[in-house]
Specification:
Length: 198
Amino acid sequence: MIKINLFPFRAARIKENIRRQVTIYALSTVFLILALSYFTLDFSKKVGVLRAEQDEKQRKLASFKKTTAKMKQLQRTIADVELKLNTIRELEKGKTGPVKLLDDIATSIPREKLWLVSLKESKGTLTLSGTAMDNETVADFMNRLESTESIKSVELVKTQQKEIKTLKLNLKDFSLNCKTYAYKEPPPPPTTKKRRRK
């Protein structure tokens, strides 16, 4: 009977399988390392691009902040200049206003038909008192006052007949209240809410 020793053949197969597995493992490891290297490099590149974009946006944001700060400074300067100009206008108005008011009153008086006795002005309210030939003259004087730029409205407070016996004249004493250019409406009183009692 012939005996064949298969052990060397089996040992060779086992060695071949081990070599194949080691080769597959080594190739898999190399492939995995290459794949990881590729993804790492790609990720690093993307991170670099994103960081560059972030830096560029930060620079733009810094320039925008400077521009915004300059704009706010300009707005403050414009507000200050407007405030000063408004103050100058108010001062000019206050300077020329009374002169214009007196001129408007003087030109509104019907000649030789009406005489002013007193003139008082307080907080834009003007009180005029005088004597006129008749009620029509007082009405004409009121209309002329209302047509001027210095006076907003005219209100008749009272008229009273006055007789001068020596001259045989019946005259009218009158009193007017006028709102001038300087009149400002008083602010409304603050409303207080009443608490409900429980």
